[in-house]
Design goal:
The complex is a heterodimer of chains A (379) and B (323). With 379 residues, chain A is mainly α. Chain A is built from 16 helices and no strands. Chain A is 70% helix and 0% strand. The chains are: A mainly alpha (379), B mainly alpha (323).
Chain lengths: 379, 323
């Protein structure tokens, strides 16, 4: 089949087009702000100042970004294999169960640096197992992964609600959550790094799982572009037929990719559970899995892009909280709209501006888009 | 007699709870049969619910509310079409985007316009669809067996309930007995053949999405103007996804869709009715299990253990003319 679009230079493909898409998403969001009767430019200033103006703001921005790096990587790994893992939300939620078991068992006996690796393993394993069933059904039974992972989100939510209002809740408590963890399951804060630069931080939940997230971003890059498995995943993602012809086992590659994706989703739970709340509460994921879709699309499925996009969304979450404080008409639900618009323009409509940009490039330099130069003109 | 009354009441609430599912499920049927996956049913229902309740309370007319619900819902369906038909974007991504935009904008606009924490003002009589009492329902009510069935189960629903159930044979007729329906099914199976016959694939798919928008709009209006006297944030609460599950469960057939929605509605009604009281033999069933049951059943069906659900062949694939 012919590709409908000619090639653009890499910097335009990976830099310019995402920026244009993002810009359009924000312009439309600006219209919503206008509709609500506020000044969009002032809203943008408050948002950016709230996210980066003070040390505490930066720490919160990076705390949210940590969560989104994990979920963004999770969506991206599956997407490289041509699978749309919409179940990141549920995989992260159910992973809270694994973390709860580890933390509740060891938080009084072990120090944090022993609990943390155990919790990482528990979260990754539970997340991966929750992704295993949809993956198996896709590979062996041909049931659509999007539908099964959506269903599994709801099933995960039901299980967690059942456990958190029942067996996992301390008898004396009314709140649907586990008991608070002791010091052995509290992750150390990273705020001192920002304080090194002279900024003051009152209290912010930025913790060591931020470093874990960055390490995972590097490992995902290594996996996708530097290993045989990653190559096979990308091959399958581009053309399942070609992969089959090359002797790549469809079942193995789908299940492996989805389990890695589920493990990354599961690790997301470490950040809010062990780094901030110190308990497992109902709905602690609160949509971060879906933000991962926006982050992965925004970051063009590349770990560097994902880290940048995650920081952008971290900024929206932190700045959005400040904005809701300054402009009561714009609650944090504004972020949900922006998120939707980013998914629409950077995801579903990613090719909308491409023909115009190509025409623009072609008019300056035909060779840059792979066309022959017009005879008698240019070299 | 108490047992019988309890059964009638449960069935009555089954009908009430199935209606939004049924309308959304039939909505999904039109688009998926035309080859457009639509996981944005949830979002379109939500904007429909909001637009309906908002317009009804501002203009003091239930029918204006319904019209606005349909209009806005169709507009959102057109965004989905613009992204996935005209620009050949990923249909799942576009659906996810619509769900988010709907969830956020209904709350933001609701708060800005009505200042009631994202709610719309409570609808007054005349602004919502009232129950229609069938002739003689009161007179016959005390007759054993027939009385409660006639007076409670059949009579006493709003016009949208009857409309929803009438949509089932109508949809069947449209899809299987009209030229439009034949072409719509063809475009979902083999768009190239439709194109070769000189029929516009894009226009046909747009028309299917307009049908989807109309039905999700009615579903939303039902939620905010019949079941509830106004819009409450996130009031669809996953019904769009259950409708999607029902659509798969029904193997993309209208009459099956009705039974699937009635089944899922029944599970919902039962879980509300039981609320922790123990069942004979099985004992106490957690509410959460009942709530998860539609999803579990759908997964089992998808796994091919209860027959096989085969989606329309061209579903999810944007159509590109050979060049």
């Amino acid at each position: 089949m012919s590709t409908p679009y000619a090639k653009l230079p890499a910097w335009a493909d990976y830099g310019l087009i995402p920026l244009i898409n993002l810009f359009v998403a924000f312009v439309v969001a600006g219209f919503v702000v206008l509709l609500v009767g506020e000044n969009p430019l002032r809203a943008a200033v408050i948002l950016v100042e709230g996210a980066f103006g003070k040390g505490t703001g930066i720490a919160f921005t990076l705390f949210y970004a940590t969560t989104f790096i994990f979920t963004g990587l999770s969506v991206a790994v599956a997407a490289h294999c041509g699978l749309f893992n919409i179940g990141t939300e549920g995989q992260a939620y159910i992973a809270g169960l694994g973390i709860a078991v580890v933390c509740l068992s060891f938080d009084t006996t072990l120090p944090w640096w022993l609990t943390f690796p155990l919790a990482i393993v528990a979260a990754a394993v539970v997340g991966a197992l929750w992704a295993l069933i949809p993956a198996y059904l896709q590979a062996k039974r041909g049931s659509h992964i999007v539908i099964t992972t959506i269903m599994f989100n709801f099933i995960a939510a039901s299980i967690m609600v059942y456990l958190l209002v029942g067996p996992l809740k301390p008898a004396a408590s009314q709140a649907p959550q586990t008991r608070n963890f002791f010091a052995g399951a509290e992750l150390p804060k990273l705020n001192w790094i920002i304080e090194l630069f002279g900024a003051k931080i009152r209290s912010a939940p930025l913790n060591i799982s931020f470093l874990l997230a960055l390490a995972m971003a590097f490992l995902v890059w290594l996996l996708i572009w530097r290993t045989k498995l990653g190559y096979e995943m990308r091959t399958y993602g581009h053309s399942p037929k070609a992969a089959r012809y090359a002797g790549i086992s469809e079942t193995r590659i789908i299940i492996t990719a989805m389990m890695i994706s589920g493990a990354l989703a599961g690790m997301m739970a470490l950040n809010p559970v062990m780094g901030d709340q110190h308990n497992v509460a109902i709905d602690f994921v609160s949509g971060a899995g879906f933000v991962g879709i926006a982050v992965a699309l925004m970051g063009r499925l590349h770990p560097v892009g994902i880290v940048l996009a995650a920081i952008l969304f971290g900024m929206l979450y932190q700045g959005g909280a400040e904005l809701a404080f300054e402009m009561p008409a714009i609650s944090r639900d504004m972020i949900v709209i922006i998120q939707g618009l980013v998914i629409l323009f950077a995801g579903a409509l990613e090719h909308m501006f491409r023909p115009y940009i190509q025409a623009l490039f072609a008019s300056f330099n035909p060779r840059s888009v792979g066309m022959e130069a017009i005879k008698g003109k240019g070299a | 007699m108490d047992v019988f009354n309890a059964i009638v009441q449960t069935l009555d609430s089954t009908i009430r709870l199935s209606v939004p599912l049924l309308l959304a499920c039939l909505a999904g049927l039109y688009s998926e049969r035309a080859g457009i996956f639509d996981i944005g049913l949830e979002g379109k229902m939500l904007v429909g619910a909001f637009a309906g309740a908002a317009a009804a309370s501002v203009f003091h007319s239930a029918f204006l509310g319904l019209g606005m619900a349909i209009l806005i819902s169709v507009a959102f369906a057109m965004i989905h079409g613009f992204a996935s038909i005209t620009h050949r974007g990923n249909q799942i991504v576009s659906g996810v985007a619509i769900n988010f935009i709907a969830a956020g904008s209904t709350i933001i606009l609701g708060q800005a316009w009505f200042q009631q924490g994202g709610r719309t003002p409570a609808l007054q009589p005349g602004e919502r669809f009232e129950a229609i009492i069938w002739p003689g329902a009161d007179a016959i009510h005390d007759v054993p067996i027939i009385g409660p069935i006639y007076a409670e189960l059949l009579s006493g629903h709003s016009i949208l309930v009857y409309l929803a159930f009438l949509m089932v044979p109508f949809t069947w007729w449209v899809l299987f007995r009209t030229r439009f329906g034949l072409r719509l099914r063809a475009v979902g199976e083999n768009p190239a053949a439709v194109d070769t016959a000189g029929i516009s694939v894009a226009w046909l798919r747009y028309r299917a999405l307009i049908c989807t928008g109309i039905l999700t709009g009615i579903a939303g209006a039902y939620l905010s103007m019949v079941q509830n006297g106004g819009f409450v944030k996130d009031m669809t609460a996953g019904k769009g996804y259950i409708a999607l599950a029902a659509l798969i469960f029904a193997k993309w057939k209208p009459v099956n869709a009705m039974f699937a929605c009635l089944l899922f509605g029944f599970l919902d009604a039962l879980s509300i009715r039981l609320q922790g009281s123990p069942l004979p033999i099985i004992g106490k069933v957690p509410v959460q299990f009942m709530q998860a049951l539609p999803y579990i059943l759908t997964v089992i069906l998808l796994a091919g253990f209860i027959g096989k659900a085969i989606p329309p062949r061209a579903g999810g694939v944007p159509y590109v003319k050979e060049r």
